[in-house]
Design brief:
The structure is a single chain. With 418 residues, the chain is α+β, with helices and mostly antiparallel strands. α1 crosses α4. It has 12 helices and 15 strands.
């Protein structure tokens, strides 16, 4: 079973846009109410049996069961009798809102952190239609239950053999732009891509966005810095308006649209770069960076602007779509190790050239790191993905290894067959 998500722009009229904004606000209130019930039940079980809390007491009987997903979902029809606004929202949209809360709760239990939080006004930006009896897309229109038909920009057609299973309506730029994320499904199985063709390693950085092991590189456009003056001007104008007034809302919309424009330019650059890398090779190895830690470090503003995590996720998707093998490798010490002789060459971050005192290899720092990423990737590829072994010790069947990578090092870690 193969499931793919396609994102399309939709153009609702004024009444439909107001109705969907009302649905988002109602879904937010349902989410907060269910979370309040969940937290009250948990807090009522915190105190010991023979004593009570000094600050407050949650009067919930001891035999009251845990407010699970099915229990809160079954309470929705009863809640509609006293909360009449829920009748305007599609019933399955409210059910998926409860499901969204409990998915977060189950994820919190597995990870041990990330307790669900209450959603403030405007923070709930999407709702989901979990199923359709018929295809909602007809030509250049999409028909959503209880909302009606609206124009849709079909930037790419739905492939033959796929059926529309779900549709998530997404609001962007403070409710002025609407998108629909369509989940399509087909009864096909896609085999895993083996290691084949030309192999390259890539290194991500702030000086050069991507440096390839073959010597090529891609410069990093500064998306946020190029629009920083305009963004600062719009934010200053918005701060001077009276909060919650009509002029304040107009100013906030301009700020949100500029942020959306910057994000679109960044995503377009990421996709084009990913396709260019797939044009160069059929096997790509990348560093498994701790992108969350980078976004909290000293260079967090530059790292957030570059968005390395989003690029790696898009690169993985593009590689899968184009039949290119992709793998992340351990990034520790890639810039402190010589790719030719494996000697440790310690150098500060300000030193941008790699000069090995052992073998005399000299190149750019990021280029040496990319070669090291390639070397590590070829050494850690599972044997099942390498195809049949040949008499060439250490070489992978069907993989073209660049001349700058020592083939003797590739065979050093291989264990002979018994």
């Amino acid at each position: 079973m193969l499931t793919i998500n396609y994102t399309y722009r939709i153009y609702p009229n004024t009444n439909q846009s107001a109705l969907m904004l009302e649905w988002l606000e109602t879904s937010r209130q349902v989410y907060n109410r269910a979370l309040r019930e969940l937290k009250d039940w948990i807090n009522s079980r915190k105190c010991m049996i023979d004593r009570c809390s000094i600050e407050r007491e949650y009067i919930i009987p001891a035999n009251t069961p845990f407010p699970s997903y099915h229990r809160q979902q079954n309470d929705l029809p009863k809640l509609k009798e006293s909360w009449t606004e829920l009748k305007n929202v599609h019933s399955q949209v409210l059910q998926t809102t409860i499901r969204r809360l409990h998915d977060t709760w189950e994820s919190f239990q597995k990870r041990g952190f990330g307790f669900p939080r209450f959603k403030k006004f405007g923070q709930f930006k999407s709702f989901l239609f979990p199923q359709f009896q018929d295809n909602p897309i007809n030509g250049y229109e999409i028909k959503l239950p209880k909302i009606g038909s609206m124009p849709i920009s079909l930037s790419r057609p739905i492939p033959d053999g796929f059926k529309v299973k779900q549709a998530r309506v997404l609001s962007k730029a403070r409710g002025t732009q609407w998108y629909v994320i369509v989940s399509i499904q087909s009864d096909v199985s896609v085999p895993e891509v083996p290691v084949h063709g030309i192999a390259i390693g890539i290194d991500l950085g702030l000086e050069r966005f991507v440096t390839v092991s073959d010597g090529s590189f891609f410069e990093r456009p500064k998306f946020l810095s190029s629009q920083h003056r305009q963004l600062k001007l719009l934010q200053r104008r918005a701060a001077r308006k009276q909060k919650r007034s009509a002029n304040w809302e107009k100013a906030q919309i301009k700020v949100a649209r500029l942020h959306h424009h910057i994000a679109d330019k960044r995503k377009d650059f990421h996709l084009k770069t990913a396709h260019k890398l797939c044009d160069q090779a059929e096997t790509i190895f990348a560093e498994d960076l701790n992108t969350v830690g980078l976004n909290r470090g000293m260079l967090r503003k530059e790292c957030v602007d570059a968005s390395f995590g989003a690029f790696l996720d898009l690169l993985k998707w593009v590689c899968w779509k184009r039949g290119v093998f992709f793998m992340r490798v351990n990034p520790n010490g890639t810039s402190q190790t010589c790719p030719r002789c494996q000697a440790t060459v310690t150098k500060p971050l300000s030193e941008r050239e790699h000069i090995c005192p052992e073998c005399g290899y000299r190149t750019h720092r990021d280029h040496a790191a990319a070669e090291m990423v390639l070397l590590r990737g070829l050494n850690v590829v599972p044997v099942d993905n390498r195809g049949m072994e040949t008499v060439c010790a250490g070489e992978l069947a069907g993989v073209e290894i660049p001349s700058q990578v020592p083939k003797t090092l590739l065979g050093a870690t291989r264990k002979p067959k018994k």
